[in-house]
Specification:
Tyrosyl-Transfer RNA Synthetase, elongated, Rossmann fold, mainly alpha, three-stranded parallel sheet
């Protein structure tokens, strides 16, 4: 059945670049929300491999491996290919065609003012990424969204500028060529930010992440390395949970245990070693379904290939209908 025939609240698109294994920050910040959205929206989730090349074009040798790894992460997190379309960007060539046409009408100043453009230039200083492709990646993002006529894009506040640029491009295109695309709305959700084991933002570049597919042993080892209250030197010293990385995890998913741990820490009724052990056990229990799905997927490699092939076929059908309308609008039919 075509996705358009079973409309729910609307259609959404979102994607992640295949630049390495996902971590718990990605899960609690995005993937868990995606899984919930599947129940109410038509969802198209992309592994956006062309976007990965905007910064990693010099060494593409790992792209295919990372695409497959990301597909496993999506599925193990709970993305259901029966409910959603899961596709690889480069398998749907219409993304590139629409990107080209949108770039014709997008003023240069619009992409230069995107906040993350200059921010990433600073973060990756020393690498040659001041390229045409890197400058234009927000236009490719816009194409990713509107090729499916998505009504909404699930984002955190830090991504609002990208959605607004997409809306501006849509308004300009519709003004020039007639009503073609809907203006996508930002489906703002509260991003639950997990710190890394050193207290900084969890990031592969810092090496402080906990992988989404971590085994119980790996979870225990990473939790054991977490930084705690530096002022708590001895076991019987009262602690301050608000400056403790371990407690930051309890606040995300600790439930009733969160208040108990906070009180026990302040009253020195629990030591850091025992507190970490309880966290590791809780975390292992929370992520058990993800580990189980991952084990099944890794035992059936053909399933990943089938899911991506089917997703590309479904995505191409939607994208081509859009492009037929776009080609007519710009006089290329």
């Amino acid at each position: 059945m075509d996705m358009a025939e079973k409309t729910k609240k609307g259609r959404i698109f979102s994607g992640i670049r295949p630049t390495g294994r996902l971590h718990l920050g990605n899960y609690f910040g995005a993937l868990e929300n995606w899984v919930n959205l599947q129940e109410d929206y038509e969802c198209i989730f992309g592994i956006v491999d062309w976007h990965a090349l905007t910064t990693d074009y010099e060494d593409p040798s790992h792209v295919q491996e990372r695409v497959r790894e990301l597909a496993i992460d999506f599925l193990s997190a709970g993305i259901d290919p029966e409910k959603s379309v899961m596709m690889v960007q480069s398998h749907v060539k219409q993304h590139a065609e629409l990107h080209l046409l949108l770039s014709m009408v997008t003023p240069l100043g619009w992409v230069e003012r995107v906040p993350t453009y200059k921010e990433q230039l600073r973060q990756l200083e020393g690498r040659e990424i001041a390229t045409y492709g890197f400058l234009g990646y927000p236009v490719l993002q816009a194409a990713d969204i509107v090729i499916y006529k998505a009504n909404a894009v699930p984002v955190g506040e830090d991504q609002l500028a990208h959605v607004e640029l997409t809306r501006e491009i849509v308004r300009r295109f519709n003004y020039l060529y007639g009503d073609t695309f809907p203006e996508p709305q930002a489906l703002l959700h509260k991003v639950r930010l997990l710190p890394g084991i050193d207290g900084r933002k969890m990031s592969k570049s810092y090496g402080n992440e906990i992988h989404l597919g971590a085994t119980e042993e790996e979870l225990q080892e990473r939790v054991r390395m977490m930084v705690t209250d530096p002022q708590r030197v001895r076991r019987h010293d009262p602690g301050d949970p608000d400056v403790c990385t371990v407690y930051a995890f309890y606040k995300i998913f600790g439930g009733e245990l969160q208040e108990e741990i906070a009180l026990d820490c302040r009253k020195a009724r629990i030591g850091c070693v025992a507190c970490k052990q309880r966290l590791a056990e809780s975390l292992a229990q929370k992520m058990a379904p993800v580990r189980e799905r991952r084990a099944a997927l890794e035992a059936d490699p053909a399933l990943i290939t089938d899911v991506l092939a089917n997703g590309a076929q479904r995505a191409r059908a939607i994208a081509e209908r859009t492009m037929e309308q776009v080609r007519r609008a710009v006089g290329l039919s």
